[in-house]
Amino acid sequence: MLSNCHEAKYAKVNRTMKNVTREEFECSETIEFYNKIMGGVDLADQVANVYELDRKSCKWWKKVFFRLLMSAVVNSWIAYCGLKHRKTPLLEFIVPLAKALKASGKLNAQYQRRRGTIRPSKTS
Fold first, then answer.
1. 15 and 25 in contact (C-beta within 8 Å)?
2. Which domain of life is it from (predicted)?
């Protein structure tokens, strides 16, 4: 890792192993700082990748849009779980949200589809 605000010093950190024991390791101050500050962002990215729509045929701007949309959904899910003080599964949060957005889009549609095709007469 490269950093311009940390020196090339090592710090002692505690890590939890798979067998639930804690061991002390040395790592650079840069990595220690990153792990201390960026833990929540990495976790939100990990959750957002569970339902990611990554298609090769998708245009780049669609990928950016859906990535930002999923980040907004995950952030709102985290806030919702914090307010309700209970952990709701992400899928149980996404499905009603998608249905509500779909219903809202139908209500706010400006143009309605015509029921038949009416051709203009030749005289007009």
1. yes
2. Eukaryota
